[in-house]
Specification:
The protein is an alpha+beta fold. 24% of the residues lie in helices and 35% in strands. The chain has a single domain (24-190), classed as Immunoglobulin-like (Sandwich), CATH 2.60.40.680.
């Protein structure tokens, strides 16, 4: 009897350990292709970053969500849209932007009319749309407010998230100085000339 009891306890502990390691997080796209810009002195630039879910092998189902993105001065949050093909949308519906959103604060939500959607790893919630004003330069961190990044299952039951909510930084590099560009060009020309001279010298000596 004691052997069977010990076996049951071990099975329960293993099950609880697996559950404890289960993870579901919200992240913002940090790929260089979508976060790195070069300053444009004459006109604004636009971009978008996906907000998506990451998970392990444990199953999760979601029926609705709320999210809030904060941005510093120097960049303008212009709205939300469907996520890109890189993060297939969890819901087929269009994300809703709250009327309380501002240039530096974006509140987004979405919900299914009925039922729940099974979460796959990398499933997209929405895309953050932003504008970099003409002449803008620097690093602009976008952060997700943990108090307003919420997932719900059916009957508005909370779906627990693990760890901190994700963030991303938009990097805007200054336009290279004309002098610096000239130095690079001149250096490249000098290198090419040097190679050409060595090649001719070898031909002259019959190498």
């Amino acid at each position: 009897m004691r052997k069977y009891l010990a076996l049951v306890v071990v099975v329960l502990l293993v099950g609880l350990g697996r559950e404890a390691r289960a993870t579901l997080n919200v992240a913002i796209d940090t790929s260089a292709a979508n976060t790195n810009f070069v300053q444009n002195l004459s006109s604004p630039q636009t971009g978008s970053l996906d907000v998506f879910l990451t998970k392990d092998a444990t199953g999760y189902n979601v029926a609705s969500y709320n999210a809030r993105i904060d941005a510093p001065a120097g960049i303008v949050l212009t709205g939300a849209g469907a996520p890109s093909a890189a993060h297939p949308g969890l819901f087929p519906t269009t994300p809703l932007v709250s009327g309380t959103s501002t240039d530096s604060l974006l509140r987004v939500s979405d919900l299914l009319a009925s039922g729940e959607a099974a979460v796959i790893d990398g499933a997209g919630l929405f895309s953050i749309k932003f504008t970099i004003p003409a002449g803008g330069v620097g690093d602009f961190p976008l952060t997700m407010n943990p108090n307003e990044a919420l997932l719900f299952g059916g009957a508005a039951a909370p779906v627990g998230l693990s760890g901190a909510r994700g963030g991303a930084t938009i990097h805007v590099s200054p336009v290279p100085e004309p002098g610096a560009v000239g130095v690079v060009v001149m250096g490249s020309l000098a290198l090419l000339r040097g190679r050409g001279a060595r090649s001719r010298k070898r031909q002259d000596v019959g190498v």
